Amino acid sequence: MCYAIPAKITRIEGDIAIVDYGGVIKKVNHTLVDEAKIGDFILIHAGFAIEKVDKKSAEESLEIIKRDLGQFKPEDFDLPGKEALEKMKGEDVGVRKGD
Question: Per CATH, which fold does 5-89 belong to?
Answer without folding.
Answer: SH3 type barrels. (2.30.30)
